[in-house]
Every structure is written in C-alpha cells, then in structure tokens.
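User: Teach me something about this protein's shape.
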Amino acid sequence: METSTLEMENLMLGCSSCKVIWTLLITILGYTSCLPVGDDSVCTAEEVAKYSIVFVGKWSQAAFPKQYPLYRPPAQWSSLLGVTHSSDYNMWKKDEYASNGVRDFAEKGEAWTLMKEIEAAGEKIQSVHGIFSAPAISSGTGQTFAELEAHSRHSLVSFVVRIVPSPDWFVGVDSLNLCEGDHWKEQETVELFPYDAGTDSGFTFSSPNFATIPQDTVTEITCSSPSHPANSFFYPKLKSLPPIARVTIVKLKRNQLGLPGPQPNLTAVGNEIDDSVSETPLDCEISLWSSWGLCRGTCGKIGTKTRTRYVRLQPANNGTPCPNLDEETECEPDNCV
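Assistant: First, the predicted structure itself:
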C-alpha cells in the first residue's frame, strides 16, 4: 500500500512538472510567433541607429531624351515617403499588387491613404518603427535629404518617390536591410530604376488617366518593356536603362556620451553620386510615306510626282539622323488630251 502511495505521489509530481514545462513551451512558442521572420530577425546590433538618406534625381534630358517633359509640368520628383519596418510589412513589392495607398501616391502623389496604411500596420502587428519624408525636387535632377531611425527589430527600409509627370510610375526601395548581424551598416547606395504601379495603362509621361482593369502587378520598366515604340522609356538599342535616380543611406555618428558627433558632408555625398551624366542616343523617328501626289509635266513628255513624310521624333546625343523627307519619281502626266 505504501509503495502504491509513493508511486502515485511521484506520478502526480511528474505530471505537475510536465504541466509547467508545457506552459513554458507554449509561452515561448507564442512569443516566437510574434517575432518578425526573415533577415531582420537575426539583427543583434545595438537597439537603435540613426541614418541620413540622400536621394539624387538623375532624370536628365541627356540620359532620357525621348519625350522628355519640358513644361506643363516639367520633369520633377514628388516628395519622398519612407518607413523603417520589420519583415512582417511591405510598403510595395515587385510582381505583387500595389495597395490603394501606393496607387494614389504613384498616380497623383497623394500620401494620405498610404500614411493610413502604414499607421494601421504599425498598430495592428507592430511591424513599423518610424515614418520619414523628404521634400520634393522641382526638376529631374537634384537632391533631397531626410533622417530616419532604424531599430534592431525594425531594420528594413522602404520608400517611394513619384516620377512627375507620369501615369503611375515611381522609383523606390523595398525592404533594404541596414543591419548586418551584430552591427549596423555604415553606408548603403542603391541605383534606382522606374517601376510601373500597374494601376494606369498610359504609355507616355503625359498620358491621360486610363485605369488598368483588372489591376496589374508592380513591374520594372526597362528599355524594352513595355515593348511599344510609344513608351517614353522605350530605347530598343540599349541593353539597359541608365539609372534614373540613386539613393545613399549614411549612418550618423555618435560620441561616447551618445550625443551626435561629427557628421558626413551630405552635399558632398550627393555630388559624388551625381559625378557622371550618361547620354542616351536617340534615333530619328519618321512617319510613313504619304500617297504620291499628282503627276506634273507637259503632255507627251515624262513628268514627275512626289511624296513626303515627316519627323515624329528628332534625334539626340548622336543618334541616327533623319533621312530625306521628300521623294520624287518619274511619271506620265495625268489628264492629257
């Protein structure tokens, strides 16, 4: 009887221990499921790092001569809107559908809906650490600055800048990780190329609104895609487009007391970025020939008739020059008696 009692006590003690272990395991698993997944989950650097972001527009008429907007409005950039976040959140992503907020920003430069989406993501799944913005640039070339704060659990940076004018085109970065294991990166530079938000079907910078139904995914615009001669970025002789912008993110230094120390010269950083301007050759584009005109000349003798064509697009940057726009051939005069 005593043996049975002792066995029972041991069994109960064992079950009690199992319950404690099980409860602890559930707690750990529950906490783990709340952690962000992906590269930023292994960041063991100090909690917070501050950076300066320098955006430089390289959208010049020399680099992008085709249909370059000179007025109403001229080539320019919208304000920059960005966020530091974990891998649970994406502001935008290539080959996925743009949110309503990204659509409004890419088409009209309106940030209200996108801001609301960011705030909602931060409140619901705590995936957003901070929002940052930089002023617009009033020309295709120029630079703008902002500061941002990254956290060890929110080490990814994303942002968008609208190309103005355009149907729904933008440049940006998706989930750039500023953390590298146990330390923060000192500097990161990314060449930027145009993207189509997939919400408007316009081909040119000044195309009128023409909604894409059904909505398409976000795609990169290249020198051959969309494959249509009317497209403002269509340069079939190029292997790839030159970068239309560039962004450099520089870690701000702090002294031993944790106060801001000597900072990098951001103007110099911008000048380094803009040290070369590529020239994209643009070939002459001409129309089809018109119909032949009337045959002119004296009856009984050989006459001549002509046809014409006109220049659709003037050549630039040593592109193929325009051919003759008039052509003449022999004929027999019309209506001779």
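Now, about its shape. The CA atoms of residues 266 and 272 lie 10 Å apart. The chain has four helices and 16 strands. If you'd like, I can walk through any region in more detail.
User: That's plenty for now, thanks!
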